């Protein structure tokens, strides 16, 4: 057999027969093996020929294992079991030698069992009319194939999906394309009733529906369409709301889709959206909202994906350290960090600050007209950073004071050294708006040893050092925010109030805390002398609409709540405050000396964002106690500070302004 | 070089075959005699076929058979044979002792001319005992004659040289010899264990064979051992039947002279033993004529095989004129326009009344009596028929394609009822599914207990017996244990037949949707089954090569039609129910007489297994489609091929004539439905000479006859059906793979 040049058939070699015999424990001579091999070949060919008959009668072109088994059975040979699958078996050569084998992959039953896409049962066999020719006339072209007989989604789900996407997305052509790819279904008529209502109903349903697990991948895919609509703030907003609804749905297990959702949200936070080219577009709000959403996803679903936190931090850091990126991207990175919690700020933003500061200052110092827009953006970033570091300081201090609070509390109160940090609002801080602080000095910026060090080998910086360094950047505008009067009024000598989101806090290094607690009084010397006057906060109650649009966030009674980072809400209250008395008020950082008695200070920082349409966001902040002036380094660089409003006047006016200053911009 | 070799051969052959010269002449003359006066009797009996039809020889054969039977202790058979053959016990006895060995030896001598080896062979035959097929072992043993294996190539190439050198007109005819000679010589070599020579021989000459023998050659090339020959069915077919060639007298003379001159005994022996040369007077046939008829496993059909008279006419329609008219009148009265149609009806009736001269007698085979419901149905169909569209080349039928979706199980067969109300599919997962095509749902009859509660006097009792709860669009019939390869509705739509791989044919009731009978007779897969157009009878055929005729109320077959050399792949009833056509993997179509079980027609010409058959509505013609993608048309009366329709590129699985026979529709695996102008195709001049000799010259006019090609959506067409109004329904299972 072997000497035949042209092989007509598959042949079983003598060696194979010998091998088989050996494996069966039989010794076979060469001659016998040759004879056997030849016979086996012949029998195989015979069986193949017989099996082709079964194929022909089954009206198929493909010879199946079944056919072969039938042929074997009818010639009284045992059938070969285990190869009945319809799919072709991959046949692979082994690398060494001329050995071929059928690849038999393991089936992961766990994956099958836990797969979210529950396989549909086989559709029913049915008879349908598919091609008709009338009077023998018709299209003579090839007719294509029968449309896929099995839908991957059930009718109900598909319908639901269509309704939801339509309600949420409206009829946007770009996203529609995305949709069409998925559903391959024609759009029905547009829904004619109120689209906004639709939107809300759809979101609510997404939040509560327990049967949409199968659709999750589709929704996630739709959401990933953010990149195609970066020009349309409205759509981006809607998509983000969709994310929020999905995240809040208690019946959905997001699994690894978290990653996809996070990347979509990050896109909204960080990317220089097409929409931000036009300064009239309020993409800042979008970024704020996306940042909040990010933190929400992270806090609720972060455990689903390992390393998510670090990945997010990394990408935020990357954006922050890239000077080429537009300021809006930087802004996004800052609010993102802020939303992720003070630790993120401490680890990424704080070490980065000295390096970044130079860039920012360059922007802010440029007074040219052409730079006006960029400068406005710069102020935003400045504000965002300020808010972030403030929170950082507060939280840090709080985490330090916590262990000591039980025993030291009373003492501190009497000693007048109580550390009374607290958040002015759940949003933590006033908007990063133009802070016209004249006396901002960077006395000790050189001592910022930790600046720029990579966060991987990040080591906690002691609070005082941090404070000093930050103060060197922000001056009084930082210090001013350490506490707000309202909460302190009742607990004058008392314990520091727990911030609303104290749960996020973890007790920092206890030793460090004890160390630092000695220095606290120095920093906060005049906090305890600031009993709360209920002056300005109550003169400026936040509009109800605002409160309503900040769901899920504890609403502080103090007026400072309006200065939440949640900018989205601020954009929803345009003009309302324009008539308010707090308009264009800038904080003043001049404080009376600590021993100035127990007058209550209450500063309201309110303002209006520059460079926006006149209905830009306003901000206000109230503050009472002031950080000690004594400890502040001289403001050598005061002139270098961002000038927002007049520098000198407020100082003077502050003295006579009865602690509540409204400085016009 | 060739000359030198030839010289050697001659001398060798002379020495070797001298003793057989006399035999040659005898065989030759007997062959000639046979061909000149075809003996119907000789072809009727299988045993006699092998033996020369001489009186004493026959007797000796019979005696040999008797010997064999006795030895096998088949005493009853011995008695029967003795009685039938008219052999007296004395004769038998007298010959038993002294003639036993001589008898068998003489028989075998005639069978296997090698006289020298006769005793040898006798020993082998007797020892082998010829378990299943005595014929086979005898014929196989014929190869035991010893020729020089090295010379086979010389013989063959000598003949080849000769044939290539003769006049063109003879060359085509004589070329027919190549294939059978080649196969037999190869097998001789294999049988005598000259494996190497066989291989060389095969490689040298297999390329010369006609391309349509490719499949057989492939089988042949795989066979290199004597042991393999025993179990190989294809080879048994080849052995058991003589390969039939049709050669004109002139060409035959030429061949004979050549072989005698050259003393080419080896070839001559093969021709004598394994070939049947059908000699005719007249012009030699052309190459195309030969090609159109050859291709079957056993050569062409013998002429005398197609001589029997076939009553292909239609039976007279039973006396339904009266009820028809009554019904019609009533209906028309209701509609208020009774007058117009009446004369027309009369015409139709009178036409029906005339007895077709070619029709069989009305009671040639007993047909079931018409029930009232059948009559009603007939009336319905007549009414429908009046509304049908007259088709023609200019008015093509509308086509509607039924796609079986999600047929993961593999759709293997489809049938549609005559009134097009039901469609059924047989699946590879052993199920049969029945769908209602009309809005009328399928309902079961109520259970016996419930039936007792019914008011049997009510007018709508037929409606009341149905169980409304079971109404559904489709029903599934479970029962088979293998793929269902053939299904057929009974004409009255009460029954459904299905044939399966499990070797059974099942009869299902469409009233209760249960299995009524399982007909067990075929021991191998049953490829096809079909009801008679009058119901009651049905035919089935399968892997065992035997078609069986059954009646629904008999659990055993009424007739067995044996003769095909390979699987019977499709079966079809003639419209007059007196004949059955079977298509086979041996590439022939045979027509069997239901009355006496004879094979009355053998149509050869297909080059592949036949998978579809269709009779024209007037019963005159039959169309057959095969795996070669061709559709052939046959005239039953004359036993001639009258048309060849080329166009399909894959197996033709469905054929159907329109209700009036103007259009032939063919459906194929290639996913197309093609319509052919049947009237034009049948309009072939058949003069007396062609009719007598069967040498038709086919015009190559497929393209003119093709009226349209219609694509499906990548779905093979496995069934076609014309509704009573001539709407064409096609069906197939969509397979996404």
UniProtKB/TrEMBL annotation, chain A:
Compartment list: Nucleus
Keyword Nucleus recorded: yes
GO cellular component entries: SAGA complex; SLIK (SAGA-like) complex; transcription factor TFIID complex
GO MF: protein heterodimerization activity; RNA polymerase II general transcription initiation factor activity; transcription coactivator activity
InterPro entries given in the database record: Histone-fold (IPR009072), TAF6 (IPR037796), TAF6_C (IPR011442), TAF6_C_sf (IPR046344), TAF_TATA-bd_Histone-like_dom (IPR004823)
Alphabetic keyword roster: Methylation, Nucleus, Phosphoprotein, Transcription, Transcription regulation
Domain of life of the organism encoding this protein: Eukaryota
Pfam families (UniProt xref): TAF (PF02969), TAF6_C (PF07571)
Keyword S-adenosyl-L-methionine: no
Compositionally biased intervals (Low complexity): 556-583
Any one GO BP annotation for this protein: RNA polymerase II preinitiation complex assembly
Annotated segments matching region Disordered: 511-606
Assembly and oligomerization: The PCAF complex is composed of a number of TBP-associated factors (TAFS), such as TAF5, TAF5L, TAF6, TAF6L, TAF9, TAF10 and TAF12, PCAF, and also PCAF-associated factors (PAFs), such as TADA2L/ADA2, TADA3L/ADA3 and SPT3. Component of the STAGA transcription coactivator-HAT complex, at least composed of SUPT3H, GCN5L2, TAF5L, TAF6L, SUPT7L, TADA3L, TAD1L, TAF10, TAF12, TRRAP and TAF9.
Family: Belongs to the TAF6 family.
Name of the protein in its database record: TAF6-like RNA polymerase II p300/CBP-associated factor-associated factor 65 kDa subunit 6L
Native source species: Denticeps clupeoides (denticle herring)
Lineage, opening ranks: Eukaryota, Metazoa, Chordata, Craniata, Vertebrata
TrEMBL record, chain B:
Biased composition regions of type Acidic residues, renumbered to the chain: 322-333
Entries under InterPro entries matching the protein: LisH, TFIID_NTD2, TFIID_NTD2_sf, WD40/YVTN_repeat-like_dom_sf, WD40_PAC1, WD40_repeat_CS, WD40_repeat_dom_sf, WD40_rpt
One GO cellular component, as annotated: transcription factor TFIID complex
Ranges for the WD repeats: 404-445, 477-512, 519-560, 561-602, 603-636, 645-677
Biased composition (Basic and acidic residues): 12-21, 345-356
Family of the protein in this entry: Belongs to the WD repeat TAF5 family.
Protein name: Transcription initiation factor TFIID subunit 5
Source organism per UniProt: Denticeps clupeoides (denticle herring)
